[in-house]
Design a protein that fits this description.
439 residues; 7 helices; elongated; 14-stranded antiparallel barrel; 24% helix; alpha+beta
Length: 439
């Protein structure tokens, strides 16, 4: 690591300390005043149906980048966290990724996630991905004398398989990505004790455990609008996603119940990058109760901001309003030797009267793009050579090299249009020659 990078990391670490400490101090100075004031402002957003669904851990973000951006991610999805927010975005990822997330949630609960995604080499617009998440919180029982009688964990574990495809993607039209997740979740309730004997009741936890089978679907499109910088990457993304569409089976060992609703949501989001270093994103999320569609939930709103200082460092901030209390977040993202790290700090007012300070971490290993960037560079080389031949009126040679470009990328519109233009020139001169011979 060179001296410039060392100096940058030292300044960045200092900035992190000076950023987090004042926020922590502010939260500890007047917790009740902050909560009461914000509670009064956002009272109209109170949802009387909040908390009526099961498998609530499905609503907790993996952490890392999405947490830093206030979960405003449905219309952004520029890394592996798309698996949780919009399953269609896998086909838009530049590189194969494997990632580990840690999100320290409230009341000693935590969410751990391992995820993987890649695009096929021979079908570059097709992708697949998978992830496993485990939410857990300590479960402890005490008897009437204050003696500990039982200790275990309450857990919710989710496994998902993802697939997505970018339809008709080309140089001019960036395509319409579609995708879906197939998910299974298991809620494990630990066995509890008999109040009189303090003995653990066998199978008591299984009677309250649950299995959920569900799916997610999503679409995403990207295009250029008011773009004030040069780049092939489109600067606007719009996404729509429906999450946790399925059914839960509760009560194994006894009568199985299927009327326990999942936390189904429908979300729409947009991300904008008018100038290259700054990206803003907005999400609108509408919760649904598929068991009783008339029980309307109040929608919630997320917004995020990303500022990229260098090619390897970014500052992220977010605001989420769900219910009467908001969540504020800030984080830094660094990339070193193809490893992307995120440190996130959240001031969470959504879960209790007193603010909760939370820290989240994520690490992503970028495993390359399976040679797609090399192919793109070769396509560009062929295209530039074709332009040179075209300018010299060597249209056959231009067509030949542009055809090579199309062989590598059959959706490279500039080469396709160049071939058509060169062929028109050839046809025109042939007609001129033929008319001169007739005379």
């Amino acid at each position: 690591m060179n001296m410039k990078k060392k100096a940058f990391y030292a300044r960045l670490l200092s900035f992190l300390v000076f950023l987090i400490l004042p926020l922590n101090l502010a939260a500890s100075l007047s917790l009740s005043d902050i909560s009461n004031s914000l509670g009064e402002i956002f009272t109209p957003f109170v949802d009387s149906n909040e908390g009526t669904s099961s498998f609530r851990s499905l609503l907790i973000p993996f952490g890392g980048r999405t947490e830093s951006l206030g979960s405003a991610y449905t219309g952004l999805c520029d890394d592996i966290s798309y698996l949780q927010f919009n399953p269609s975005a896998g086909a838009l990822q530049k590189e194969t990724q494997i990632s580990l997330f840690h999100n320290s949630w409230i009341a000693d609960s935590k969410l751990e996630t391992l995820a993987y995604t890649t695009r096929f080499k021979n079908i570059p617009h097709l992708s697949w991905g998978t992830y496993g998440s485990c939410f857990y919180v300590p479960f402890t029982e005490y008897n009437i004398f204050g003696d500990r009688t039982n200790g275990s964990y309450y857990t919710e574990t989710v496994f998902a398989l993802n697939g997505s495809y970018n339809l008709l993607a080309g140089y001019d039209f960036k395509g319409l990505a579609i995708g879906g997740n197939l998910k299974a979740a298991w809620r494990s309730m630990p066995n509890y004790t008999d109040n009189e004997t303090d003995a653990i009741i066998a199978g008591s936890g299984l009677a309250q455990s649950a299995l959920a089978i569900m799916g997610d679907i999503g679409i995403m499109m990207q295009f250029n609008f008011l773009k004030f910088y040069s780049s092939r990457e489109p600067n606007v993304r719009i996404g729509v996603s429906a999450q946790n569409l399925g059914i839960a089976f509760t009560g194994f060992g006894k009568e199985v119940i299927t009327d326990d609703p999942l936390p189904t949501t429908v979300s729409a989001g947009i991300s904008l990058k008018f100038i290259k270093p700054i990206t803003v994103s907005f999400d609108f999320v509408q919760p649904l109760n598929l068991q009783d569609i008339q029980k309307l939930h109040f929608p919630y709103f997320n917004t995020g901001l990303s500022v990229q200082f260098t090619s390897f460092a970014s500052f992220l901030a977010g605001f989420s309003l769900k219910g009467a209390n908001p969540r504020l977040s800030a984080g830094f993202e660094l990339e070193v030797a193809k490893i992307r790290l995120n440190l996130n700090y959240s001031l969470d007012l959504t879960s209790s009267l007193a603010p909760v300070n939370r820290i989240g971490l994520s690490a992503k290993i970028m495993l390359g793009d399976k040679g797609r960037s090399i192919v793109d560079a070769k396509v560009d080389e062929y295209y530039q050579l074709g332009l040179k031949y075209y300018a010299e009126a060597k249209w056959e040679e231009a067509i030949a090299v542009w055809q090579e470009a199309v062989k590598l990328n059959n959706r490279f519109d500039p080469a396709i249009q160049g071939i058509q233009s060169a062929q028109r020139q050839i046809d025109m001169f042939r007609k001129i020659k033929e008319s001169m011979l007739l005379e």
